[in-house]
Amino acid sequence: MKPGFRTFLLGLLTGCVACGAEQTLQLGRIMFVGDSITHGFGTSSYRWPLHKILVDNGVQFVAVGVTQDNLRPQTGTPAGTKYAGVPFNNRHSAMSSERAYEVAGRMNHSGRLGNSNIYDWLGLDTSYTGKFRIDAATEMPDVFVLLIGTNDTFSDYGRRGGFGLEHFYAEVKHNLLSPGGDMDTIVAAMRQANPAARILLLSIPTWHDVATPHSHAPADYVALNKLNAALAAWAADKNLEWVDVNRGLVDVTRADKPGVAEPQFFSPRDGLHPTDQGDMLVAAEVARALGVGGRTVGLERKPMADFPCEGNRRNHIPLEEWRALETQNGLTVAVKAPCVGNGAVDGWSSSPAMRLCVCRPDLEICGILTMTESDIRWNENTVLYCGDMSKNAENLQVAWVPGNEVENRSQGFYVWLGERLIGEALPSMPQSANCWVNGALLTMPGAKGAGESPLRAAAGAWAPPL
């Protein structure tokens, strides 16, 4: 059993960690180590949505590190920004373009972070001129979250000499994973500094297919998949906690480039840095590895079985049957574990195999959640999550949540897959022929056992149970 899951179980046994109860899950001090994907490049990075997940679940934690900013402050989340009353301190140990060999101290590329490396950051070697380091007495991390390797692969080898990453795969793997290599050195420093610390190793995120000079040949994606498999095996051998951050990000329909990312999850400029949606999905996987439940958006968790309204034979819940619906408290609709399509047996279909319409025309609240064989979408065109939906075993839940400026929570629709938030403050759409229902309507033309996927609704906005 993973340490994070043990901690989570302990939290459940000692008290509620999800709905404003006394805080019980203690992660302590967390250091995020990495490059611009951790630092933030056009977004706040996954650290901001992770902060919100931890706060929602009543987790005790503090981020520590040698720097405190985002690469682009005008688009990042400034230090001190509060969510549910808890300030985001924006501390980390990451920098744009950082390589694993720089963090390890094997060589320096351009003086980033003052020529410092992880031995200096952790106070293990004070000979570096930059002297970027934490206070070892008060800031020694209890948890390290390491996401490094994108620049070692994409920037250094992805396009070198006209060859792709596949051509240099053996060299990259050697530099990163050989005994005494860059990853080995980084982890050794972490364990020297705090032998009891948890170390999470995150997979190297994939890229989406954009125009040159950032485009990649199919072999590059194959090479990245091989490298992540090698990283996962290495993590298991080193007793690290492996986190596949590409879960939900990959466009499974692209047989020509297996492993390529869904474009909406990564920057259209470089195809490399996650968007806010991509960061949210990454943060959910990190939280899962830490043993923390999904986001509640400040809402109480309520099981689907307790929702009073159930769809009729057509899985339709008329508005008048939504008992005591008080709009100031929101509304919630849930669908039990739908499986749609056949897993591309006859090719991936982009037609909706499940459509959930939620509409209150009098309040201008209207939204459509669709599931195809390969993804989940909002209002037809906004992709929230990718995967083989014929194998889905998690419920879907949609809540319309009123805004709360004090809590820093935006008004809109929120969508969960299982207990993991995959859609935040999603906009309403004008009522149209695509969403004519006044109430909630579920249609599942491509579902397996559609009769086993009932529609239920409740007054008020609720988060799904753990």
Question: SSE layout and pairings?
Answer:
Layout: H1 3-14, E1 26-34, H2 36-39, H3 47-56, E2 60-64, E3 82-83, E4 86-87, E5 93-94, H4 100-104, H5 118-121, H6 136-139, E6 143-147, H7 150-155, H8 169-177, H9 182-193, E7 198-202, H10 218-237, E8 241-243, H11 276-290, E9 309-310, E10 316-318, E11 331-335, E12 354-360, E13 365-371, E14 375-378, E15 382-386, E16 396-401, E17 412-417, E18 420-426, E19 439-443, E20 455-459
Parallel strand pairs: 1-2, 1-5, 1-6, 6-7, 7-8
Antiparallel strand pairs: 3-4, 9-20, 10-19, 11-16, 11-20, 12-13, 12-19, 13-14, 14-15, 16-17, 17-18
Helix pairs in contact: 3-11
Low-confidence stretches: 1-23
Residue fraction in strands: 15-25%
First-residue to last-residue Cα separation: 18 Å
Question: The CATH topology of the largest domain is what?
Answer: Rossmann fold
Full CATH superfamily name of the largest domain = SGNH hydrolase
Question: Which architecture name of the largest domain does CATH use?
Answer: 3-Layer(aba) Sandwich
**Number of structural domains:** 2
Biggest sheet, open or closed, and with what strands and sense? 6 strands, parallel
Q: What is the helix fraction of residues, given as a range? A: 10-25%
- What oligomeric arrangement do these chains adopt? single chain
- The number of helices is 11
Counting helices, strands and paired strands, the structural category is alpha+beta
Overall pLDDT: 87
The number of strands is 20
| Cα radius of gyration in angstroms | 23 Å
Q: Which word captures the global form?
A: globular
CATH class of the largest domain: Alpha Beta
